[in-house]
Recover the amino acids of this structure.
């Protein structure tokens, strides 16, 4: 980067980067719960971003936690705002754990539905 470019390039501190990362993670978690699409035009983009989060919530949480660890070592939690950003990330993690719990219970829900509609001997048919 040239001296002139460095003069005009904004400096982004680790706290701002952590804010962007935590808000992006929380928005992605919220998008997995309730996709943010109003018309059919944006369905593909919304599905592409929500599917990995809803299908692999623990993996999404692990990547958010890795980012939090990296920003923490860079000093992003030294301020009150940094701790607020950690709270945003923690809320996202709670949501991701909710997704994991729902996925874990889905087999039982499906089995009950099949027995209700097809009878207890549906596997023998």
């Amino acid at each position: 980067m040239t001296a002139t470019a460095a003069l005009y390039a904004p400096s982004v501190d680790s706290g701002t980067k952590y804010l962007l990362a935590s808000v992006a993670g929380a928005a992605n978690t919220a998008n997995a719960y309730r996709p943010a699409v109003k018309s059919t035009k944006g369905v593909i983009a919304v599905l592409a971003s929500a599917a990995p989060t809803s299908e692999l919530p623990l993996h999404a949480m692990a990547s958010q936690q890795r980012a939090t660890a990296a920003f923490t070592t860079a000093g992003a939690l030294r301020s009150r705002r940094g701790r607020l950003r950690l709270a945003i990330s923690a809320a996202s993690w709670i949501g991701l754990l909710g997704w994991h719990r729902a996925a874990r219970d889905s087999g039982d829900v499906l089995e009950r539905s099949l027995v209700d509609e097809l009878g207890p001997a549906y596997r023998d048919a």
Summary: The two ends are 71 Å apart (CA to CA). Residues 13-124 form one domain. Residues 15 and 76 are 5 Å apart (CA to CA). The chain has one domain: 13-124.
